UniProtKB/TrEMBL annotation:
Keywords: Signal. PANTHER family: LIPASE 5 (PTHR34853:SF1), PTHR34853. It comes from Clonostachys byssicola. GO terms for biological process: lipid catabolic process. Belongs to the AB hydrolase superfamily. Lipase family. It comes from the Eukaryota. InterPro entries: AB_hydrolase_fold (IPR029058), Lipase_secreted (IPR005152). This is Serine aminopeptidase S33 domain-containing protein. Residues 1-24 form the signal peptide.
């Protein structure tokens, strides 16, 4: 395989980062030299797309990364999962000039646990509603969707923190919210293990650390909410052994548009491509998921650098993601000028044993108990994560004796469903803190149409 050795990739990434640091504290989406791009099968059109997508990413994550704060805390080795390592207000920053009146925001660093239990540093955000004199603020843990796989792609660095249809709605409803960046985003002590169960650990321990940061302000009981990648993390969290007992304070969670069984959905989409039953939009959307999925599997299984389904051209392009430290838009942009035949060696070959193994090790709804309520929400028009995939996992989890509710929002896509379902998930959160009964059997409903 024609590729740069690891040391060469590191050198090129360092060069690109150096170019960015010359004018700012930029941590992502660096310009890649033309000769490097061309050597990775990225021609003029590809380079133009990446440049355009870099503008979008940097508009989201900014060019004023706080390297001192996001550096690993000196006391990490003395800490345990759930410990608070750093806390810094963002309230006086122009970056959150769009914050609702009376809301304060802090970025923090805490200790989480890697998949093997090893302590790892993770960063995130804590948002507090206006203080009241008579009670604590009820706490919601939010798990975000895909933002990228590199340190500069952390949600806590957003230039406009409250321009979001997810957790800011919970803050507006009076809840305190803790948002984990997930390990590897913001702080780079370890790599971000995309879609793995590590994200469930990060959500759980973010709550413990936030409660230590504000012991008089935050409730001991808490509810979780997640969208897309974060929705999958919340489903994983619902089966986590640490939240099955009442002592955890966990009351239940909401998984919006959650990816569950990665391999099953991947193979299903490939079969659709083979039968020519996919629309142009569906094809393009699917192809943009190839870089983050491949990088995630490479980090989980180092041998996956020889991804069996992909062409050499695509493997080379994906290497540019690490060189340029590309976040969400540019990462997907690596595929925007390609066709399925450019990407896959053969559309008739869907067998990827390592992806299947990843699914077996990280997917929810495989028999583990979920003793607290779980609400699953999906849009019928979601072409990024198929509603059929969450339906299959819903049925499986119910078959194992867990109690879930699933709501399908007709006509809503992957992004819009989070906002358009907010009335339901805010009510779900309120019901959990009020101790309302969730029922004793699995149920389903449809909003905006009929049929499931």
């Amino acid at each position: 395989m024609a590729r740069y050795a690891g040391s060469k990739l590191l050198h090129l990434a360092t060069v690109a980062m150096g170019l960015g640091f010359a004018n700012s504290q930029q941590a992502s989406n660096f310009d890649v030299p033309t000769e490097v791009a061309e050597s990775h099968s990225c021609d003029v059109v590809c380079q133009q797309i990446i440049a355009q997508m870099n503008v979008l990413d940097l508009g989201t994550f900014g060019t004023n990364f706080d390297f001192d704060f996001y550096a690993t805390a000196a006391n990490l080795s003395e800490s345990k999962p759930g410990d608070l390592l750093k806390l810094l207000p963002r309230s006086n920053s122009s970056a959150i000039s769009n914050a609702p009146e009376g809301v304060t925001a802090y970025k923090f660093q805490y200790t989480s646990a890697a998949l093997d239990g090893t302590p790892v540093p993770v960063t995130g955000l804590i948002a507090l509603p206006p203080a009241t004199n008579d009670s604590r603020s009820n706490l919601v843990a939010f798990a975000h969707g895909t933002t990228g796989l590199y340190r500069g792609c952390a949600p806590s660095t957003y230039t406009q923190l409250f321009n979001d249809d997810g957790w800011p709605r919970a803050v507006a409803a009076g809840y305190a919210v803790v948002v984990s960046d997930f390990a590897g985003l913001g702080n780079n002590y370890t790599e971000h293990l995309y879609l793995s169960k590590a994200q469930a650990n990060d959500v759980y321990y973010s709550v413990l650390a936030a409660q230590k940061a504000f012991p008089q302000r935050l409730s001991q009981q808490w509810v979780s909410l997640g969208h897309s990648q974060g929705g999958g993390a919340i489903w994983q969290l619902s089966e986590h052994k640490l939240v099955q007992d009442a002592s955890s304070g966990y009351l239940g969670g909401v998984a919006v548009a959650p990816p569950t069984k990665l391999s099953d959905q991947f193979q299903s989409t490939l079969r659709s491509l083979q039968s020519n039953s996919s629309t142009a939009e569906e094809i393009q959307t699917f192809l943009t998921t190839i870089p983050p999925t491949t990088l995630g599997l490479q980090r989980y299984f180092p041998g996956y650098y020889d991804a069996p389904l992909l062409t050499e051209k695509v493997k080379q392009r994906i290497e540019l993601a690490s060189i340029g430290q590309l976040c969400l838009y540019a990462l997907g942009g690596l595929m925007l000028d390609l066709t399925p035949n450019d990407v896959f060696l053969s559309l008739s070959n869907t067998d990827d044993s390592q992806m299947q193994k990843f699914q077996a090790l990280n997917s929810p709804a495989q028999g583990d108990p979920a003793r607290k309520p779980l609400l699953v929400i999906h849009g019928s028009a979601d072409i990024l994560v198929s509603p059929e995939s969450s339906k299959a996992s819903f049925d499986a989890s119910c078959g194992y004796g867990n109690i879930l509710h699933r709501t399908v929002y007709v006509g809503r896509d992957h992004g819009s469903v989070l906002k358009d379902s907010s009335t339901e998930w805010i009510q779900f959160i309120a019901d959990r803190f009020a101790g309302k009964d969730f029922g004793s059997k699995c149920t389903e409903s449809v909003v905006g149409g009929t049929g499931l």
